[in-house]
Amino acid sequence: MSALIDSHAPASPTLGGPTGSHDEAVRRLRSAMAPVRLSFTWFGLTKSLNAEQKARAAATFEADAPFVSAGKKLWDSKAPAFRAVSAVRTKIVESWCGMSLPFPEPGVRLLRRDQVEAFLALMTDYRVELADAVAELDRHYAELRASAARQLGDLYDPNDYPATLAGLFDVSWDFPNIEPPGYLLALSPALYREEQRRVRQRFDEAVRLAEEAFLAEFARLVGHLTERLGTEADGTPRVFRDSAVGNLSAFFERFRQLDVRSHEQLDALVTEAQRIVRGLGPQDLRDQGALRQHVAERLGRVRDELQTLVVERPRRRVLRGPSPSPSPSPSPSSEG
Questions:
Q1: Strands annotated E in 245-316
Q2: 16, 165, 222, 235: most buried, per Cβ within 10 A?
Q3: Regions in the chain scoring below 50 on pLDDT
Q4: Contacts of 150 (CB under 8 A, 6+ apart)
Q5: 3-class secondary structure, 180
Q6: pLDDT score for 216
Q7: DSSP designation for 174
């Protein structure tokens, strides 16, 4: 799999370092990151009613069938065996997003080149876990079908159900080449330059997307912790979970790993927040009232500055060019 990454590419520089211009951030992102695409093969749990069934449903409401859309679930989505399969998919997507930055192509994100091997190992493990969960689901498949037959009544159709679920749930990944091919330079220098401009524009947009994603997540985490460190109307301290502090610490680590160093104000606020909570655990904030109030006040100032940045942040540009650039997808593309 790692052969999909250009083995002749120069060593990947780190994304960190002094905050620079937007153009410098684009160059760092383009040289340090590899595009990675995630796809799922996923058996659809819902199915549209056939024409006769839709006509019967429409008649119930005295409606015209062409103006009615109706579907059915093939089995109970809350069945434990199916929820286990869905949980693996959720973990895969969360890990993929956690290790990468957004890119303005559906199903594609940017992964640090020095994290490719770790990503491959993780996804391979998840693929095995998914296969095990699907095998367990297949063992309960007959029960699910029998239950569906009772619940669907006349809508049940045995032809909707394959003989086995093996091979109908899977995850795959690849590293698409988003750079213009070298041969294009010899064929048409003008077209090659245009393709270079288009790719550069997409990385420019990727920097903006990264800034927006980090800003939104940071504002949410700081705002939540600041609110929980406050007091109720009667003056008693609010209850907060350890995760309110832990999630912020995890953000600092991910920000350090993936920050493109293009937004000076955001970088400064992250540094300030990190300084405020450094060395503090959830229990310290519960046990020491004065410390809790001091941290809440300082984080409140960070929160206020973040809210100003969020409000002032211009809307993301829509890329225009020879071929339209679709909006980034929050989840990977699906097959099947």
A1: none
A2: 222
A3: 1-14, 17, 317-336
A4: none
A5: coil
A6: 94
A7: E
Q: Could you give the CA distance from residue 97 to residue 90 in angstroms, rounded to a whole number? A: 11
* 3-state secondary structure (DSSP) of residue 235: coil
CA atoms of 35 and 174, how far apart (whole Å):
9
CB atoms within 10 A of CB 79: 15
Angle among Cα 11, 12, 16 to the nearest 5 degrees reads 140
d(CA 129, CA 132): 5
How many alpha carbons fall within 13 Å on the CB side of residue 19? 13
Tokens of 170: 């899977």
User: For the whole model, what pTM was predicted?
Assistant: 0.80
How many residues are there in the chain? 336
Q: 70-101: per-residue pLDDT in tens?
A: 899 999 999 999 999 999 999 999 999 999 99
Structure tokens at 326: 């679709």
* Contact yes or no for 229/292 (Cβ under 8 A): yes
Phi, psi (rounded to 5 degrees) for 156? -70, 130
